[in-house]
Input
Amino acid sequence: MEFSVFTGQANEVTADCLVVTLDQSGALSASAAAVDSASNGFIKARVDEGDIKGAPGKTLLLPAVSGIAARRVLLVGSGEGEASTVTAGKIVQAVAASVASIKGRIAVDLTALASEKFPQAWWAEQLVLAIHAAQYRFTATKPEKEEAPKADALTWIGEDVTTALTIADAKGLGTSWAKDLGNMPPNICTPTYLAEEAERLSDEAGFSCRVYDESELDAMGAGAFVSVSKGSVEPGKIIIMEYKGAGDEAPHMIVGKGITFDTGGISLKPGAKMDEMKYDMCGAASILGTMKTIAKLKPAINIVAVITSAENMPAGNASKPGDVVTTLSGQTVEILNTDAEGRLVLCDALTLAIGEYKPQTCVDVATLTGACMAALGKVNSGLFTEDEALATELLSAGQYSGDRVWRLPLEEDYQAGLDSNFADMANIGGPLAGATTAACFLSRYTKDTRWAHVDIAGPAWGGDGTSKNSTGRPVPLLTTYLLNKAS
Output
């Protein structure tokens, strides 16, 4: 989008739509009052006649208001008192839904909602992200018959929040790309496709990119990864992208699970809704989306992005329950359930990348367990770490971005659930605390590293039937976290 800042009277701004607010009592913001004065009381009359009551997120679109330079005025309710995270989300989503398809320039004044907790820069960022979300359409395999009208310019009325607007636009572009990758059919979005997309982005952005093929990983001894990838005719890949924005500093690492289709392997999933298993690569998609944002903003930080990608198929040579494999770390794993494959591809990728790059921090994201979704639904991602400072940083980034995480336990007592009679560990625990035992498994490959695991099984995609869609999460979380590291 194109951005500008306006400091004059709202009634004088030229735009295709002007957005102003009123609270639950009907009291107009300064900009709404200026519009009311210029229109001889037209706005107040709408309030007095009950056309809008000011509840959070309620809107009223008024075309051709007399005395106003803008072609339309959108009244938006802000509720009462200081906004909470929930009410703020309702407000920006309502504004975005109302203006996203208005072609041209949108002028917005949300200054009456700003507070110490939610300053103008925060409102600006959240609004731009919401507009990106409202305008998103997946067209790769279902092109639109005609291009929908879109708001393509935003004028912010208030403080100079140009930096926040620029950051938000880059986050929005990265999130939309992650959505595209997640929504792509699995016959197109294969491990090879993800590798090609990573190489294309790297060429454009000046990143270095290294792709390890399945045969190479097999020769290296990455037995856990190969135990998953060998059952598919599509060769698995581990993809490593490196961005250097801070000289010789040790990098911060982000790692994503990219199972481009997950049948469950020999431990076959039920057939109903199996098409949704194309979303098992949303962790990888979010890593690519984050790196697209980084490419736009070029922050002063070093980042290593790792994608571990394979298909999990029930072929004649696929792994069987009871098989024992040796990981790249030398530890052995008894595969009790071939549908617990994400941790198998991740553990070898973690061993490879941590050993090579010695990162300051490492955060992996994965659609790892149904157990996490059972616990947290589709609102929060699960956060697992023993590093208190890292937990605080990720929780804070989640609150600021609206891409929230909830911390779940990762205590030594849970490790016993992975005990095996035939290997150093099993790849699943018992029927309880499945999200935690999965995190315990990964923790055995991140020793002496400041590491956190984010389980995005619930928030990675939403909807049902024809409405299902990738959400692009946790691109906002990861980009906010990394930009905070850079600042």
Q: What stands out?
A: The two ends are 24 Å apart (CA to CA).
